[in-house]
Amino acid sequence: MKLISKSGSASFKKDDTAAFFITEEDSRIISKILPEGFSYLYDSIDLSHFKGKSSEILFIPFKDKPDVILSGLGKKKDIASESLRNSSANITYLCREKSKSEVILVLPDFENFTSEQSLKYISEGAVLANYSFNKYITKKNDDDSPKDMLLKSIFFYTSARNSQKILDETLVICSNTLLCRDLINETSDKCDSVMIASEAKKLKLKGLTCSILGKKDLEKLNMGLILAVNKGSKIPPALVVMKYVGDPKNKKFTAFVGKGLTFDSGGMNLKPSGHMETMRMDMSGAAAILFAVKSIAELKLNVNVYGVMPLTENMLSNDSYRPGDIFKSYSGKTVEIGNTDAEGRLILADALAYTEKVLKPNFIIDLATLTGAVITTLGETVAAYLSTNEDLSEYIRISSEETGDKSWRLPFYPDFDDRMKSDIADISNVSSEKNAGTITGAVFLKSFITSTPWAHIDIAGTAWYSKKRGYRPKNATGYGVRLLTEIIRKI
Ligand code: BES
Ligand code: ZN
Ligand code: ZN
Questions:
Q1: Going by CA atoms, what residue is nearest to atom 16 of ligand 1?
Q2: Candidates 28, 53, 76, 271; catalytic one
Q3: Burial code of 338-361, b = ≥16 C-beta within 10 A, e = fewer?
Q4: How many whole angstroms from 78 Cα to the centroid of ligand 1?
Q5: CB-based contacts of 221, cutoff 8 Å, min separation 6
Q6: Which of 85, 231, 259, 345 is catalytic?
């Protein structure tokens, strides 16, 4: 896909498609809003039914003049970065429906945003809506074109300074978000630990290296928890460590750690029907980290990061680990298995302890589809984060705000710590009380970090949508790629 900046006064050819953003206030004075040369639109057509409401969209085709799209923005005072992304996403969706391969967006000036900001948000929404996971659909249109058309080029009339640079950045970060969706949507049959490790390994970018610890290495290192979860699987586990050095003089590193459960059957505590079908998405944390590190390297950001991905399946077999078993973690702590479906925290515990002890970063952030409880708490559109560090919490909060990858902080209070106690081991992987599952999951993880500032983001709801919402499609959303890329900039 191409994003191309245009400046000066907008001019169009007859085969073009021109798209305009219209607020509720401006919908009443459309003739003043559109550039000269578009009088054919309001002269020939009654536009009074178009009110400029957010999510309102109008397509007006012409034979020998440019087709016109009007996309509503709602009331001026309510316009936010997300309304800009969603409004431009609607233009993309409409163009795809009409099988257009190109569109020209004309950006207005906004009171509450600079031209640079509005170009960024509008271009993001346009790209993030230009996605379809259709590789397994064999049916084509009569002319052999694919069933689901995508835009090839999007042009932007903007007064923003450095506009092409802004668009180039959008394209890097958002293309990686789309690739992240592809990896998550891919079936577990293909997308296993071996495939994800090779996806990381094959990246050839300046400053980026990747090492893979295989089953033998994990045995040597005594990563008892990753190995326990992997016991029921035919496919070996892996711990992938990506390293990007963009600031060689600086010794400071931030580590991202992502849950990479390539399929979560629940194990002996087997998931019931209705809960297992989507569990190929349980590697969404790892996928977000892979593509965030790739974005950071492609943008050549002046930072140092690790991307750590513990990878395995959680399967049911004669060899599966059992409820009641006890395993020794990499950290030395023993863990009683209260429930084999609470496996994410086990593989993360080993990965986090290893990250702190061996990689010694200054900050650790983990991203995980850890608990169904987070969906009960915050729904599908907001992730939960918990942190032992105020600075890190603030970086997450403001980066969430900036990117629209929404999140909300949950508390650690000392009384939660007691709930993970075991009578026969150092700690249990499940809580003695049923409620507050997202917090107690995080409490378990916390006990494997000694002193490094750390935050945990539970993305079980946000990584995968049960329906399309704005610029995010049904199924994999790519949540976290933009958030982590922004966090690293803030840090
Ligand atoms: N992968 C699941 C969490 C999940 C649920 C992700 C729904 C996406 C959608 C996780 O491994 C899990 O099964 N968690 C259990 C923990 C419980 C056994 C303590 C849960 O949330 O029920
Ligand atoms: Zn599970
Ligand atoms: Zn899981």
A1: 342
A2: 271
A3: bebbbbbbbbbbbbbbbbbeebeb
A4: 36
A5: 213, 330, 354
A6: 345
CA proximity to 68, closest of 50, 85, 83: 50
Quote the pTM value.
0.98
Instruction: Please confirm, yes or no, whether 345 is among the known catalytic residues.
Output: yes
pLDDT in tens, 317-336: 999 999 999 999 999 999 99
Q: Are strands 153-157 and 2-6 parallel, antiparallel or unpaired?
A: parallel
Q: What are 456's strand-pairing partners?
A: 366, 386
Residue 240's contacts (CB-CB under 8 Å, 6 or more residues apart) are 196, 197, 200, 201, 210, 211, 212, 213, 260, 286, 307, 308, 309, 311
Mean pLDDT, range 126-147, rounded to an integer: 86
Ligand 1 geometric centre to CA of 152 (Å): 38
Ligand 1 center from residue 226 Cα (angstroms): 17
- Residue type at position 260: G
Q: Are 85 and 129 in contact (CB under 8 A)?
A: no
Q: Which class for 36: exposed (0-12), middle (13-18), buried (19 or more C-beta within 10 A)?
A: exposed
Partner residues linked to 469 by β-bridges: 472
Residue 386 backbone dihedrals phi, psi, to 5 degrees: -135, 140
Query: Given a cut of 90, is residue 31 above it in pLDDT?
Result: no
